[in-house]
Design a protein that fits this description.
The chain is an alpha/beta fold. It has helices spanning 20-25, 50-63, 75-86, 137-146, 152-156, 180-189, 195-198, 214-217, 219-230; strands at 2-6, 29-32, 68-73, 91-97, 118-119, 150-151, 171-175, 203-207. It is built from 9 helices and 8 strands. Helix 2 packs across helix 3. Residues 3-225 form the AB hydrolase-1 domain.
């Protein structure tokens, strides 16, 4: 299976480096993406849009020979959902890593402080305590050293979706910051932020208790959860 790994804000394809080997040993073809404007800290990203990132994932889908699985972390989940909307017949499953599908008109996060046309990684005090579980001082230093400012438009452009066949694409939610039972409760209560998730017909939940960046804090367990979502090799 072709696995397309879509990173969240501030991360490039190398953020998956501790997860990829286990996926490849299981026989999968793994494609960790570096999205437009995220090639280096010095890249010109001021003009990059959310649609540019979605189109990059769609291009990767089109380059694969058969069905693909999208794995989207954080804001990469919204991008993966839009790519599944663009190619619902080509996506066998979307795996959301501490993320979920973003509905039409929603934005990834318009509260992140911007510096011109880009979003530097904020101070750790910007994040909730649950985000930072298991992210010790050494991992924080590593992540900050490797972080790349994200294009501001990616976080603030409205999501645009058009094909309701996206609701037929099976989904796995890898829930990290809070138990999946809590997420299920939000869905059952009709909470607005999970309205798009509630419309998906086939959803599986997996708990991976850690903070918002399991590819750094629990990479082996994250790889195991992804493989479990894929089923037998």
């Amino acid at each position: 299976m072709d696995l397309i790994l879509v990173p969240g804000l501030w991360l490039d394809g190398s953020s998956w480096r501790d997860v990829v080997p286990a996926l490849e040993r299981a026989g999968h073809r793994v494609h960790p993406l570096t999205l437009p404007g995220m090639e280096s800290p010095d890249a010109d990203r001021s003009g990059n849009t959310l649609r540019d990132h979605v189109d990059a994932v769609v291009t990767a889908i089109d380059a694969a020979e058969g069905p693909v699985v999208l794995v989207g972390h954080s804001g990469g989940g919204a991008i993966s959902h839009a790519a599944a909307d663009a190619r619902p017949e080509r996506v066998a499953r979307v795996i959301y890593v501490d993320s979920g599908p973003l509905g039409d008109g929603g934005v990834i996060n318009d509260q992140i402080p911007a510096d011109g046309g880009e979003l530097p990684l904020p101070d750790w005090s910007f994040f909730e305590e649950a985000d930072l579980i298991d992210l010790d001082d050494a991992l924080r230093a590593t992540m900050r050293e490797r972080a790349i400012p994200s294009p501001a438009h990616v976080a603030t452009d409205p999501q645009r979706l058009s094909d309701e066949r996206r609701y037929d694409v099976p989904v796995t939610i890898i829930s990290c910051q809070f138990p999946s039972a809590t997420l299920r409760e939000f869905v059952s209560q009709g909470a607005p932020f999970v309205a798009e998730l509630a419309r998906i017909r086939d959803v599986t939940y997996v708990d991976l208790p850690t903070g918002h960046w399991p590819q750094f804090t629990r990479p082996a367990e994250l790889a195991e959860a992804i493989l479990g979502a894929l089923g037998p090799a």
